[in-house]
Amino acid sequence: MMNSRIWLLGLLFSGSGLEAAQDQAASLKNIVIEGESRIRMRGDKPVDIPNPSPREAIEKDLAQRMTLISPGEKLLANVPVLLPARLASDVVLSPWHQKLWTPPVLSLEVRNAALVPIKRWSLVITDDHGQVFRRIQEKGSLPPRIEWDGLGDSGEPMRVGHSYACTLSVLDKSDVPTHLANREVRVASYVHAQDNRVSVLLETRQIFVPGPALSAEGQQRLRETRDWLRPHHHRTIRVEVYGHDMDLAQRQAEQVRKYLANGLHLRENDIKARGHAAKDSYHRTEISAR
Questions:
Q1: C-alpha 259: how far from its chain's center?
Q2: Is residue 122 part of a domain?
Q3: In terms of domains, do 204 and 282 share one?
Q4: In Å, what is the CA distance from 80 to each residue of 62, 73, 84, 128?
Q5: Same domain for 226 and 208
Q6: Domain check: are 275 and 199 in the same one?
Q7: What H or E segment, with its residue span, contains residue 273?
Q8: What is the DSSP letter of 157?
Q9: How far apart are the C-alpha atoms of 136 and 151, rounded to whole Å?
Q10: Which pLDDT does position 122 carry in this prediction?
Q11: What is the model's pTM?
């Protein structure tokens, strides 16, 4: 009797163990095992990127090419010049070369001049006060071209903003005068360059607007003026403004000085600026380097 009970209990325990094993196997089917890949790919750039500059290789090749095989032989070699990466100065010439008048201010072309028999000819220039400013005369036939450089008989430059009357006359063999041409000349600027000196005359009202401030037209004229001053930057540069009021003229002169100094890479104290009260009503701006 006892043996039958033990066997029955053994069946019960073995039956319950089998069910537990089946349930555990069924639950393992739903388990997903995930792993992490040890290989990782990134799109980052390397920290040190080499810069393959060809300069070293080019210089070595040029050095080999420029080495003469026989130094005793006199050979001509075109040695290339290696320019630096950047010029030492960033100062360049301005393209504004049409705002300032340069000599000649008057040019008369005479056609068939040799065919006209004359005894003497003359070109007379008078100012706006009727005074003779310049007289050019010669004996014999007229030349093919007659020019006036803008200077008076005393070497004084013409006044900017003022009108000049130019009359060309001839005298024939019978001493009968004949007027051939009449011209009026008026310029707002004038450049007088002689030897190692240069002087630029400007009509003040053309370069300023009320304020005082530089006008767009005035800045163009001053940019071209800087090109004339640049070869003479080691000399004394002066800015002198002549006007009605001395204080206003001084402020205008300082405005011009500041503009020129910035363009010429100079200190403002390197350029002298002064305003004057014009006694003869001749208002102008004179910029000179002497």
A1: 13
A2: yes
A3: yes
A4: 8, 20, 13, 60
A5: yes
A6: yes
A7: strand 271-277
A8: B
A9: 11
A10: 92
A11: 0.65
